[in-house]
Write a structure and sequence with these properties.
Helix content is about 45%, strand content about 15%. With about 150 residues, it is an alpha+beta fold. The chain has two domains: about 100 residues, no CATH class; about 40 residues, no CATH class. Strand 3 and strand 4 form a beta hairpin. Helix 1 crosses helix 3.
Length: about 150
């Protein structure tokens, strides 16, 4: 269930109080903050409260477009406050533990290992495992791969 802005603010207040109660709590928070140094202090508190073991967080779009990675189905985002507009709202980031690479997605489908993910091998597997429907897309290639 997604949290509301009010619940987010309460979470930040509770987490700030919690991390300052003991040396162990503060040390645990500092470990999280050290891994997530690009984020502002309130965002670090929010990430620590929701996923203390987070190591690298970024938005869904950045994982897909810049890093060519994909968020696993069923992953829960980490809520952060987006105060760049007149009305604050929540935005979500995902930790690297919630991410899959294209190879992770191809492996169960094609039955390949890391050494067999070359383009010719993948094309061969697709030709032999996907039924030929007689369409131009499957009957002949549109470009030659060298």
């Amino acid at each position: 269930m997604a949290i509301t802005t009010r619940q987010y603010f309460q979470l930040i207040q509770d987490t700030a109080a919690s991390v300052t109660r003991s040396h162990a709590n503060w040390t645990s928070f500092l470990r999280t903050a050290a891994r997530l140094y690009p984020y502002r202090f309130p965002d670090q508190l929010a990430i620590h409260a929701q996923c203390p073991d987070a190591t690298a967080c970024t938005s869904y779009d950045k994982w897909n477009e810049q890093h060519h990675r994909y968020v696993k189905r069923g992953s829960k985002g980490i809520a952060l406050l987006d105060d760049s507009q007149a009305t604050p709202r929540l935005r979500y980031v995902f930790d690297v533990s919630d991410i899959a690479s294209p190879q992770d997605i191809l492996q169960p489908v094609l039955g390949v290992d890391e050494k067999k993910t070359t383009l010719p091998f993948v094309l061969h597997r697709l030709r032999t495992t996907v039924p030929n429907t007689g369409s131009p897309m499957t009957s002949k290639p549109h470009m030659e791969v060298r």
